[in-house]
Specification:
The protein has 508 residues and is α/β, with parallel strands linked by helices. The chain has 2 domains: 248 residues, DD-peptidase/beta-lactamase superfamily (Beta-lactamase); 218 residues, no CATH class. It has 10 helices and 23 strands. The strands form 5 sheets. A 6-stranded antiparallel beta sheet has the order 2-1-23-22-21-20, sandwiched between helices. The two termini are 27 Å apart.
Length: 508
């Protein structure tokens, strides 16, 4: 009996030691994770009260590290993750933007006795080549002449060409600040190409891409034999198009100034356009003329639907492809076009920023994500009025990870950091190389990073890092974020295991 009692005690002691080892080992690793993150956050260039960190394990959602988790902060372009998730939820991965061409009146032989109408559907990816292809297809269908005018139908969106909260900070003509429009081409940007002349004293060679009849160049730039290369280009709007523009409309002038040496390389300056619909429809008119279709009447932009017979339909690539480009290049214009499309599609009314941001909030809330402190000013993250918490972002990342219907598409739009590729150099020397998918964000004094990282054992974690009001500079902020992601890759598995063992122990 005594011997049996001793054997039982020894067995229980061994079991207790085993459980203690299971619990104690991950605790040491949790300290490693916390210490590594705390060390990264100890940089003097960070504002402790304006920094947020959330790290969770997936699919459980267990919180592994939290710092100012529920403090509303500026997300910068990490906002595009929320836009992407909502777009996939409401529109679906296979959604395609449509641009239609109609005609009023009737067609008699090769002549349309009426107006030619191009109806915008919010497509953010129509290129000049696409627009030329549409014109060419109309010509190949046998159309030679339009007796009426050329109409741009923009009723798919409301009249706001910027989110209402965007402020004029002096960057109004820069490409990243492009305006929105139901009918848009070339991301609503014009490229100003500038080359030196062959000899000193000659004017600079300047041309626009795409070229439009209503855009004219005022070139005062000169070619130098020696000296400093310095050129600038700026749009000067002389007269805006009201409701109707004549065939020879008032012009928008592009002023080019400065100088280039004879041996200087070509410069390209990108400017956004002041009137997206006008830019698109005047470019379309030029392409129609190039392919041999004469339009007799004036050009008109209408914000109400125009009825007519459908003669051509252009469809964009699937939404999942559009979102990949949007996030890879962090394209603000594309993000805002997608946002407006959400409400246009759901409500069958002109898409608006206000309706769409409300729908996005409904998606976040109904999915079970934390909405504390949330304010959505836009879909791109360019507004400094946006507020999100890192808690909200990791909740959204968790939700999308669990969605079989749209989760794979969401994951695929994120850049694979450190993998081979021109825009994937970050983390290229990290142990987590090619195991990090992320969206970056940058504004003045703001750096953000959010996404997923898979450990060596293929355990996946979601993270959101917001460094607001930091003075680290671009490289310094990246270094802080990289250190945290590397720590998750190296130490999070053991912390996740500790959570598992602790739960198991509590059930004994």
């Amino acid at each position: 009996m005594f011997r049996l009692r001793n054997l039982l005690l020894q067995s229980l002691q061994g079991l207790s030691i085993g459980w203690l080892l299971l619990i104690a080992a991950p605790t040491f690793s949790q300290t490693n994770l916390s210490q590594a993150i705390d060390q990264a956050l100890s940089k003097r260039c960070l504002d402790a009260g304006q920094t947020g960190v959330s790290v969770i394990s997936l699919p459980s959602g267990n919180v592994l590290h939290a710092y100012n988790m529920d403090t509303p902060l500026l997300p910068a372009s990490v906002m595009k993750l929320v836009t992407t998730a909502a777009a996939l939820h409401y529109l679906g991965p296979e959604y395609r933007f449509q641009t239609r061409v109609l005609h009023t009146g009737q067609r008699v032989g090769n002549v349309i006795q009426g107006d030619l109408v191009i109806v915008g559907g919010g497509d953010p990816k129509i290129s000049p080549q696409t627009l030329w292809h549409i014109a060419d297809q109309l010509k190949k269908s046998g159309i030679d002449e339009v007796s009426g005018g050329l109409i741009a139908d923009t009723h798919f969106f409301d009249s706001y060409d910027h989110p209402p909260d965007w402020q004029d900070d002096g960057s109004g003509q820069r490409a990243y600040n492009a305006k929105m429009g139901a009918l848009s081409i070339n991301y609503n940007i014009v490229a100003v190409h500038i080359r030196p002349g062959n000899h000193a004293g000659e004017s600079l060679n300047v041309w626009l891409e795409p070229s439009s009849t209503y855009m004219v160049i005022n070139n005062t730039g000169k070619t130098l034999q020696r000296g400093r290369n310095s050129v600038s280009a700026r749009r000067l709007e002389e007269l805006g198009m009201q409701q109707t523009v004549a065939t020879s409309p008032s012009t928008v002038q592009i002023n080019v100034q400065g100088s280039l040496r004879t041996d200087a390389s070509e410069r390209v300056i990108y400017l956004n356009v002041d009137d997206p619909a006008r830019f698109a429809v005047e470019t379309f008119r030029a392409y129609l003329q190039q392919v041999g279709i004469q339009v007799a009447g004036p050009t008109e932009v209408r914000s109400v639907p125009t009825s007519g017979k459908l003669i051509y339909r252009h469809e964009s690539p699937p939404l999942s492809w559009v979102l990949k480009e949007l996030n890879t290049y962090s394209n603000n214009f594309m993000a805002e076009q997608v946002v407006k499309t959400i409400s246009a599609h759901i409500s069958n009314t002109p898409g608006s920023n206000a309706q769409s941001t409300e729908l996005i909030k409904q998606f976040i809330s109904s999915s079970g994500a934390n909405l504390q402190g949330t304010y959505l000013a836009d879909g791109s993250g360019l507004s400094r009025n946006n507020r999100l918490t890192v808690h909200t972002i990791t909740d959204v990342l968790k939700i999308m990870y669990q969605r079989f219907d749209i989760g794979p598409d969401f994951l695929s739009v994120l850049r694979v950091m450190g993998a081979d590729g021109e825009r994937s150099k970050r983390f290229s020397n990290s142990p987590a190389k090619a195991r990090v998918r992320a969206k970056t964000g940058t504004l003045a004094g703001v750096s953000t990073l959010a996404g997923y990282v898979a450990s060596e054992n293929n355990q996946v974690y979601a993270y959101a890092l917001f460094l607001n009001n930091n003075r680290c500079g671009h490289d310094g902020a990246d270094a802080v974020e990289n250190a945290i992601v590397n720590a998750i890759y190296s130490f999070a598995d053991a912390v996740s295991a500790q959570t598992h063992y602790t739960l198991d122990t509590s059930r004994q």
